[in-house]
Amino acid sequence: MAIDAGLLEQADQTGRALLRLYRFLPSCLSLGRNEPARKRYDRDAIARLGIDVVRRPTGGRAVWHEHEVTYAVAGPITAFGVDSGRGAACCAPTYRAIHRRLAAALRTLGVDATLAPDRPPPPSTTLHRLNSCFATPVGGEVLVAGRKLIGSAQLRHGQAFLQHGSILLDGSQDVIRAVSCRPSAASGETTLSAVLGRPVTFDEVVDAIVRTWGEAVTSTVLHRPPPSSTALFLDPAWTWRR
């Protein structure tokens, strides 16, 4: 997470668009930037299961990172031809543009990936019970047969944005329900292995994304975040600040 935050700063300072593709080792539960984690999740259950937890720089809800490709795109807010105005309405075109590129890459693997249409958000009483990022899609997210394949979140800083997310290869988000104080029955995700009926590897998906995106976004070399940023994301006071 410190590396992704560093890419956002780099994009703001240089005006370059950057792409990072990676995975979590060990597996990890990530929490959204403003998620009320102390109310939603059972820290004793997390400790018993030996689960690592980090709070993301971006928003959204919890994601279990295990069998997946994690992507991060950082760039100037005009990188995808979007107006530089303020607010969520400005972020939505960038959100869709990145998802269109990811969906195009997945279609080269035989995945019938589409973007979710815009729709009114679920009632607040429903949202309160949904702890997982994958529980329900919002407009512009990548779906297969109505089920969510990629969970993403975004953050803006200065004249740049960071969008990162999880492309599910296999497994499930059941760990989130296992450590939730009020488990939700909702399960709206699917995986590439389930869709294609075969194992799908990390390298296979990475290669498809790189081929599809070409030189539109600069691939990142290993970026060393400043020690202060690394310390922040390691600090339990940040992870459990809410």
Walk me through what this model shows.
The structure is a single chain. This protein has about 240 residues and is α+β, with helices and mostly antiparallel strands. It contains 10 helices and 11 strands. It has helices at about 1-15, 35-40, 45-50, 90-105, 125, 175-180, 190-195, 200-215, 225-235, 235-240, and strands at about 20, 30, 50-55, 65, 70-75, 115, 140-145, 145-150, 150-155, 160-170, 220. A hairpin with a 2-residue loop joins β7 (about 140-145) and β8 (about 145-150). The longest helix is centred in the middle third of the chain and has 20 residues, at about 90-105. The model is unreliable at about 125-130 (pLDDT under 50).
Which SSEs are present, and which pair or pack?
Elements lengths: L1 H13 L3 E5 L5 E4 L5 H4 L2 H7 L2 E4 L7 E3 L2 E9 L11 H20 L6 E2 L8 H4 L14 E3 L2 E2 L1 E8 L2 E9 L5 H5 L13 H5 L5 H12 L4 E2 L7 H8 L1 H4 L3
Parallel strand pairs: 1-11, 2-3
Antiparallel strand pairs: 1-5, 2-4, 5-10, 6-7, 7-8, 9-10
